[in-house]
TrEMBL record:
Full protein name: Endo-1,3-beta-glucanase btgC
Organism taxonomic ancestry: Bacteria, Pseudomonadati, Pseudomonadota, Betaproteobacteria, Nitrosomonadales
Species for this entry: Methylophilus luteus
Localization per Swiss-Prot or TrEMBL: Cell membrane
InterPro entries found in the cross-reference section: Beta-glucan_modifiers, GH
Function: Glucanases play a role in cell expansion during growth, in cell-cell fusion during mating, and in spore release during sporulation. This enzyme may be involved in beta-glucan degradation. Active on laminarin and lichenan.
Amino acid sequence: MVQRSFFRIPALIWASLFLIGTVFYVWRLQQPQPLIEVPADVLPLQCVSYAPYYKPGMNPTLKDTFVDPVQIEQDLQALSKVTKCLRTYSVSQGLDYVPKAAQKYGMQVILGAWIGWVDADNRKELELAVQQANQYPDTVRGLVVGNEVLLRGEQTEARMHEYLQWAKQHTKVPLTYADVWEFWLKYPTLEQEVDFVTVHILPYWEDKPVAIDQAVAHTASVMGHLGTVFKKPLLIGETGWPSQGRQRFRAKPSVVNQVLYVRGFLQAAKQTGWQYNIIEAMDQPWKRELEGTVGGFWGIFNDQLQPKFNLQGPVSERSDGWLPYIIALVLAAGAVAYGVHKKLPASQKALLGVVAATLALHGYLQVDYVQLAARNPLEFVALGGFVLLGWGLLLLQLRHWLGLAPRSCVEQCLLRLFAIGLFVTSAGLAFNGRYLDFPLILSWLPLIGLLISLLATRQPEAASAQLQQTGIWFTVVMVLLAANLSVAVAMMEPGNLTAWWWCLVCGLALFVLPAKSMQLAPKAAGD
């Protein structure tokens, strides 16, 4: 009796509960969270990485890229409010203008010379960097000969010795080489060529990623160990936390976590006397192509040159204000007006309004997700198509709830496409998932809509006889593979809660998609 009553709850009730949950989720993301605060005297920041490739189409990997001196001056004017030092990574593509611009704003520069595969290019880069260092000795406080060259495997240890020795012979500016701390421990002889050791400590990117609540302690532990190995001064050349992107093990990118790490690190740096450089000044959209969503969101400024956070006060994950709710209300009002025009019963008008509001709120978050995660036109089409697929499935469920004639053939096709999408996503996460996000926000809307249909619509008894149909078996196989691969991903990253949520999505789909396909099967013949 309880089971029968449970399945007789109308779709309006289930849809309303789903809307309430969605509203709460959006509201929760905007709630300010109290975090550790640091005193104002930690400003200005000691140094910040500066790469001016934050505008649309700018990419340092494209040889014809050139940064206009006017942009550099505008950038430094903004950055001079939070720091008096910049670290650059190259002097090519117009960046040789940075020392001159920095001098105008009373800033110093840790000047970078990019070292890559080609020796001739490296020599040219070094010559220009040394020329700038010698021309602006009071502005250039250090010359970084190579950034993570040994990590990338683009040069040998012996060749790096040669580059550093050549630079030492041609400039009196203090020299250094920058790499992740593990590679400094692997190649400690480089210490003899430098005036200070520049190490990168990025808890998120460690081989064993560190959770945010342990991140600053991890940095302190690494610095303590390095202090026992190297005799020359240490500079933390890169440290920070991403505000968006894929969770790795227990290390989760988020706005709140970025603020939490930066504030905690600055407090620790003040107490311990660390010399540091924060990565980075501005978000770098071009890095998403190389590192996924996370690569583009390490900046303390966004790509509009707006500060992303403060050092005091509470912080919220999102700051959309009333905009998503206004969009939901407008869409809901339009849907109800349509119901009035069609002279539908009150319950159906209410259902239209509820579904429209839910679609609006999810759509708002989904569009934002696609803009962040899509790195190229192909991914934009794929993710955008997945969004439209979910909307289509929800609207087809709405037809069922309103008692309209079903579009069974169309719905069967969309179910199979959705199953394929889940499989492709899980396969990508399993075999090449380091830089791929978990598209949770794209999946909940259609899955919950399908689940409501199963709960609110009695399944015909003849449906089970259709299980032998090829299409239904195809759906079952696709979702079963997706579910198995999702479990494999979660087991490879213990502690990754997002990965387990993806397992839940695939597990729910393993029940919902075949069941819905079976429910539609008897109707397909007469569709």
